[in-house]
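Chain A, query sequence.
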Amino acid sequence: MKSDKPEKSEKSEKSDKSKESDKSEKSDNPGKSDKPEKSEKSARAAKAWSEDPTPLLRAGAGFTLLGSDASATPGFDGSKSDGAASLIADAPEMGLLQEKFFANSLHGDERSILLVLQGMDSSGKGGIVRHVVGLVDPQGVQHASFKKPTPEELEHDFLWRIRKQLPTPGHIGVFDRSHYEDVLAGRVLELAAPEVIEERYRQINDFESELVAHGTTVIKVMLNISADEQKARLAERLERPDKYWKFSPDDIDSRLLWNPYQAAYQAVFEKTSTPTAPWHVVPANRKWYARLAVQRLLLDALRSLGQSWPSADFDIDEQKRRLTAT
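Chain A, predicted structure.
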C-alpha cells in the first residue's frame, strides 16, 4: 500500500541535506556567537552554584588546613551529575574566551595566565589538566611539571627553572607542582636550612608580584584530599595494572610524612597568600567538584580580561576584492 505522504523529489532531498549541513556548520563554529546556547539541563546545572566559590576557597587570614573538610563542595548545591553537566555547559564559553585571549596576543596584548597546581600525591592534579585545561585549544596552553631538580638546575637559584617555563602572552600556563616544592619538600625533607626556607618565601612573593605587575594572572590552587582518600586512591593504583605507572614507592614515603607536609602547606598559605596572588584550597575528595571549582577560577580569570575580538589590521573590502579576482 502506498503511503499517503508524498515522496520527496531528489532535488528536495538535496535541499534538505544542504540545510542540515549549513545548520551543522554553524553549530560547529562558536566564533559566530559570543553567547553559546545552553540546554535546559545545562541551565539547571549552572543554577546549582548557589554562591561564588572564589572567596569561599581563598586561604585568607585565619585559614587553617587542619580540620578543613576535603569532601565539601563550597558554593555548589548540586549533585555529581549536576557538576558534570555544569562543567560541559561552561566549556564553550571557556573555549571562546581562550581563543580571544590568544587572538589578542597576536595584536600586542602581552597578558598571560598561570595556573599553579599543588597537592599531595594522587590529589588529582593530572585530572585537572585533562578534564579542565583540556577543554581549551592545546595550542594556547603551556604545561610544565617540576620534579626533582637536575644537576644543571641545582647550579642556579631555585626560581631559575621556573622562569624558563613561564607562559608567553596569550597562553595559559599550567604548573603541575611548582616553585612551592622548594618550600614544601625543602622544609619537610630538610633539603635546606630553616633560614633559607624563610628567605624563599620572600623571594616567591617578590617573584609573583613581578609576574602580576607584568600582566600575568596567577591562580594558585592546592587540591586538598584527606589521608583516607589518598590511601584509597593509592590502593586502587596497586590493584589495577593500568594504574601501576602512576604509582611510585616514594608516594608511601611522602604519606608517612603527612602531618609535616600539612604543616608545611599551612606555612605556605600564611606566608605567600597575598592580595595579588592568593591561594585557593579546593576540597578534592570529590574529583568532580575539584574540576568544577578550578574551571570556575579559570573562567573568572578569562572573563576579567574583558577582551573582544581584535580589529582587522588590513582593508577588509580590498581583500574581498582581491579574493574575488582569484
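The CA atoms of residues 16 and 161 lie 58 Å apart. The chain is about 50% helix and 10% strand.
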